[in-house]
Structures are given as structure tokens and as C-alpha cells.
Write a structure and sequence with these properties.
Helix content is about 45%, strand content about 15%. The chain has about 375 residues and is an alpha+beta fold. Strand 6 and strand 7 form a beta hairpin.
């Protein structure tokens, strides 16, 4: 079956998906509550979309299509409030965070859906270990060629999003020393990493994807777990490297940062992407996962070593005119504050020190999700 045609979307429109944790309020461990949560939410109008994820201790929400920070944040807050009300009814907590700090993957239950059962049969224990939680951001593209151009032009900025969104420092009760340990679980899948270097949609569709389909390895774009992938049915590119933040305020800010970056890149004033840019890609991604904003990355064009925090700050300053035009200056202001006060990973580590247990971290995450910002 050939890949579907690339649907044209209004350029720079936005959509957000968040994978969220379902937590027992008695012991703060994950709880297999998504069937009950989804049944309850289905009784009334939900201010977005909510679907199951691969294990029953997860749900995924998604927004409508937006053009501005104000509208996106308003809907995310409405979705959050609806989830909290449902959780309160069921005595189930809902929170962000890229990993649950002490859950045991072997205790998870695969949600009863054909695709999830197929993934579990193919990937074995990796399917349950995929009980991790990410934010995906969709940006509308006027053509498939623009989508492939943006996908590869963004490679240099992927560490920014990893570091700013990092919220997964603990796994199985231990501090991993990573700011984003979640992405280590994604990297275990054979079709993860980066997309092949193809800059036009025809070449991707009739060349790469057609060959991959003939191998029998893939049937659709859902089979790729790339850091950024095109979504032809939506007419978007989808950024997938972010941990789920602890607040919807940060989720909206990250989405609008990506929107402003895409507006800048589409002006084509920067040197075009080249395959050699990926020589430093895995190293830069590791630096962002391991050290967050304290990492050091290598510029893919000049090979100059850069402080990741300073590179983020310089980019935020450069994008201010774009954010003003898009009505998202508040989003950049949020991220300015994040670079100075620390990521969600830093906050969670601080809570561990103050409360003395991984359970205390989860309690703090639950409270943070319920509360409207401003947050750093």
C-alpha cells in the first residue's frame, strides 16, 4: 500500500499531544486505570481528544489545531481541568513527567487494542518498558517538501527541546544522572533515531518509504519512532523528543518555541541542511539527555563547541520578532525563566532531596500538574 499523499495544512499551525501518568493516591505508584478513566471521560464532552496508550497506566490527550499561544494554552488548561475532575471521581492522580520514578515495568498491563498487542508481540518486554511519557508537537506545513526541509533543518535544535522539556531523572527508584532518561528507552527500538536524509516529499514517498514497505518491516508512518517524523495525513511534522512537562504551561511554551523556530527556518536565511550535519547529532542529543542545559554541544556547521544553555538563550533572543508576530512572546518568556531556574528534572531532584523519597517526587508532580502557573 503506497504512502498516502501529503495533506496540505496551513503553515505554522500547531497541535499538541501529551502522554500522562495515572497514579494511585494511596502509594503513588502507577495504576492500571485507563479503561475506567476513558469510560468516565466518554460520558460527557471532553475539551480535546483522549485515547489509550500502550499500557493501562497511561493516557494520551491531544488538542485541536491552533495558531496562537493563547488559544493553545487555554485548551490545554481546559483538558487538564477535565482530567483532574475525572481523576478525583476515581481517586486516581494525573501528572506529567517523562518517567514514573519508581514503577516496575513488569507490573504493567498492555491495553487491549490490536495495535498494542501487535507491538507487544513484536518487541517483547520493550513494549511494557515503553511506559514512558512524552510530548509530541505538530506543526502544519504548506507542502511535503516544506515538511522534509523543516524536519532536517531542525536537527540542530533538537537538543534545545530535550533539555528544556527534561523531566525524567529517576527510573526504578534510582537517580539515573540523566535529565531525560526517557529517551534511552525510545532508542532501544530499531526504527528510532533520525529520519533518512531526503529533502523532497516525492523522494521520501517513492524512494525511501516505498523501499521500506517492500521489505515488510513497515506498513505506515506509525512504525517509525524517529525524533521528528512527517505525518502526511495531518500535513505536519511531528517533534517527538520532549518529555511530558509537569505543567501545561511548559507544554504550550515548548510548542510555540517550535512554531517560532519553523517560521524562522522557512525564511531560508540559514545554510541549508546537509547530511554531514548529522555527524554530531547523536553526541549533541546525548549531551542534552545526560546534562540538560548544562551540556555542551557541537555546532553541525562550524564544529564549534557551545554551551547548550547559552545557545538556547541566544536562539530565544533571535526569535523574539517571530514570537511577537505569532503572539507567543509569553511562551518565550516562560522558557527564558526555565533556562535560569532549571528544568522539571531539576525540580524533581530538588523535591527528592526535600521530601526524602521517590513517592514525595510523585506527590509534588501531582500537585504541580493541578496548579495554574506561572511556573519557571
Amino acid at each position: 500500500m503506497a504512502l498516502e499523499a501529503f495533506s496540505v495544512s496551513a503553515a505554522l499551525t500547531l497541535g499538541v499531544e501529551l502522554e500522562l501518568q495515572l497514579v494511585s493516591l494511596s502509594d503513588f505508584d502507577l495504576i492500571d486505570a485507563s479503561p475506567d478513566m476513558l469510560e468516565l471521560l466518554g460520558r460527557a464532552r471532553f475539551p480535546g481528544n483522549v485515547v489509550p496508550e500502550i499500557t493501562e497506566s497511561m493516557i494520551e490527550i491531544s488538542t485541536d489545531v491552533h495558531t496562537s499561544h493563547v488559544g493553545l494554552l487555554a485548551q490545554l488548561r481546559d483538558i487538564r481541568d477535565a482530567l483532574i475532575r475525572a481523576g478525583d471521581t476515581l481517586n486516581v492522580g494525573v501528572c506529567g513527567g517523562g518517567t514514573h520514578p519508581f514503577q516496575q515495568w513488569s507490573q504493567r498491563r498492555i491495553f487491549s487494542k490490536p495495535r498494542f498487542k501487535q507491538v507487544s508481540a513484536l518487541y517483547g518486554y520493550l513494549a511494557k518498558q515503553f511506559t514512558i511519557f512524552g510530548q509530541h508537537v505538530h506543526v502544519g506545513c504548506a507542502s511535503g517538501d516544506d515538511a522534509m526541509f523543516l524536519l532536517h533543518s531542525l536537527n540542530r535544535y533538537v537538543p534545545h527541546f530535550i533539555a528544556l522539556a527534561a523531566s525524567s531523572p529517576f527510573v526504578q527508584g534510582k537517580d539515573t544522572l540523566f535529565n531525560s532518561a526517557r529517551l534511552n528507552s525510545v532508542f532501544a527500538f530499531p526504527l528510532s533515531g533520525r529520519a533518512p536524509f531526503v529533502l523532497d516529499w516525492r523522494g521520501f514517498e517513492q524512494g525511501y518509504f516505498a523501499h521500506m514497505e517492500r521489505t515488510g518491516i513497515v506498513k505506515s508512518m506509525k512504525d517509525f519512532y524517529w525524533d521528528i517524523r512527517p505525518k502526511p495525513e495531518y500535513g505536519t511534522i511531528e517533534l517527538r523528543v520532549c518529555d511530558t512537562p509537569l505543567t501545561v504551561e511548559r507544554a504550550a511554551a515548548l510548542a510555540c518555541y517550535l512554531q517560532a523556530l519553523c517560521a524562522h527556518l522557512l525564511e531560508r536565511t540559514e545554510p541549508p541542511p546537509a547530511e554531514n550535519d548529522y555527524l554530531v547529532y547523536n553526541y549533541n542529543r546525548f549531551q542534552a539527555c545526560r546534562f540538560g542545559m548544562d551540556g555542551t554541544i557541537v555546532h553541525p556547521k562550524s564544529y564549534q563547541s557551545l554551551s547548550l544553555r547559552e545557545d538556547i538563550l541566544a536562539t530565544l533572543r533571535y526569535l523574539e520578532p517571530h514570537s511577537d508576530q505569532l503572539g507567543s512572546r509569553a511562551a518565550l518568556d516562560h522558557l527564558y525563566q526555565t533556562t535560569h531556574e532549571g528544568s522539571d528534572a531539576s525540580y524533581l531532584r530538588q523535591q527528592y532531596v526535600e521530601r526524602g523519597s521517590p513517592e514525595g517526587m510523585v506527590d509534588a508532580a501531582l500537585k504541580r500538574f493541578r496548579t495554574t502557573g506561572p511556573f519557571p
